[in-house]
Amino acid sequence: xxxLRDAAAEGRIDLDELDxxxxxxxxxxxxxxxxxxxxDLPKLDSSESRPPLVxxxxxxxxxxxxxxxxxxxxxxxxxxxxxxKVDFTRVECRLTEVALEAYxxxxxxxxxxxxxxAADTSGMDPGVGGLTDKTTPDRLPGxxxxxxxxxxxxxxxxxxxxxxxxxxxxxxxxxxG
Length: 177
Known about the structure:
Number of helices: 4
Largest sheet: 5 strands, parallel
Number of strands: 10
Oligomer: single chain
Order of helices and strands: HHHEEEEEEEEEEH
Number of domains: 2
Radius of gyration: 20 Å
Helix content: 10-25%
Mean pLDDT: 89
Strand content: 25-35%
């Protein structure tokens, strides 16, 4: 029944089909009868099955975004000497949750999430550099939760919404990265 509800929430079946299948599920007496109800559901292109995106700051730094890019279920960011910036402001993400491992190391990691997205930083070790969470808990329905883990290292990790300069850029080029 949970698989059927998920399929309806993701738009893979409509609500009439959901009602019909849930009714059949309640009347089923064997696992085989239940399996038939989910066997033909269209599969989503699962971002979670893709390998993680790994960003390494190295000597010169690294960044992902602010343009459009496909978000995998797992992102790993190592600040290194040059730092890393991960910008989610222009992405379209169908995932309900993104696991993001951030290691501040020497130059730190900055993560920018759109308004309406939320972050869970409870799994983060602040290290010497610390963790700065400037996000709001106001998560909009259908937006991902960024589950942040890792360590602040020497330089720290910052997770925030766009700053004034980034907002002006987003407002002046609404469809461009």
